[in-house]
Amino acid sequence: MVAVRLASAQPPGPNQAAMDTLTKEVALRVFADIRQPKAQEIYAQLLACGDECDPQQVIRSVGGWDAVGAKMQELSELKSTSRFNTMSPAEANTAIRQQLARFYDKYKNDRNYGRPLSPAAQADILAKIDGLLPPATAPEQPQLSAAQPEADVPADSDTLTEDENSIDGTDLRISQLERQVKSEEEKRLWMMILGAIAGLVVGAGAVYLLAYRSLKAEVERLLSENARLSRSVDAAAQRPRPTNEPRQPPADYKQKADAYDAIRAELGKGVEPLAAIRQLKQKGVNPAPANEPVTRPVVSERSEPVVAPVPAPEPPAAPTPTPPVQMQSQTTARGDVFYFPPPDPTGQFDNAQQMSTLSPESAYRFNVHADRPDTASFRFEAEPGRVTRFLTYRNYMIEPACESENSFSSTHTRIVMRRDGEAALENGSWRVKTKALIRYE
To answer: What are the Acidic residues biased-composition ranges (predicted)?
Structure first.
């Protein structure tokens, strides 16, 4: 180290000047192909300085290209060895040639160094070195063809490796350390790439697992909700239905119409009931004199009995209750009619839910035979707005008492009767004996 410092303190010798020239020429060719402001500035300063200027100082002063400066430091490492400084010009020329060959062989695959240091460029550089350090014998410059510009480089490098020990063991150690550092960097890079790939795979697996668990939980929730709704529907179908007592209308218009028809039949076809009633009211208010004949309502041409006027001003609606008794007797002769909600799955109707008129819960109309009170015919009959509900729950409300000609589909909206069913009174309850025949349309 003391010898190196003494050598650096003294003016540079011819060997060091030749090494500086080599380093400068290599740096010029490297920075000539780089189109970048700082690289061009370094290139301009190297052109302006003399042959013996130190390119490493120029690179450090401009900055931004420390990697190239490190390569130039590696190329000029012979300058810091005492053996190189004490060599003869011929030996120093040979050592510089070997150093340039080693440098090119190491970085020829790097386009920043391999392309600028072509065989022709190396020949020009070595010609300048020969001018500073004349060789012992003029070496023949190999003529490299364009097809094989690098064919002889490996051979020269093989030859030069035999003389590595003649330079210095420290240079070899530095080269080995650099190769180890480079291999470690490559390993670290590959480890980072593999780690990133493994992280992506693990992340994708975690996302897939979370999505799978979320979808599984949603499916289980939907299944449980479906099961709960199914149980509620089954429980509602099996639960006994409350008795619906239909609200009787305040006025029975049918009975009034029947009473009107009975009065009209009693008066005759040619007599208007309203005119007779008005005439009776007028007679009740203004009685006719005894010497005037009594005006009777005009009767039709047929010889039919004429209704005698009532002397007392009683309301004409007094004999109204008589016709309903006759209608009731006629209805009893035809058979009783009543309504039931759907039966249970065994086909038995609940007597507590029997209704005399059609209601929203009614589904079947019963007609009891007059000659056989324990037998009745029934048919499906419901309010139009309730048919959709019966079709939706047909397995509970239709199938226990009816059988269909066709299969049900979602397009069907109504039920058409094909044949009435038959029910029998057993133990005080009506039970289906023969199912009614229907058709879905």
So the answer is: 153-166
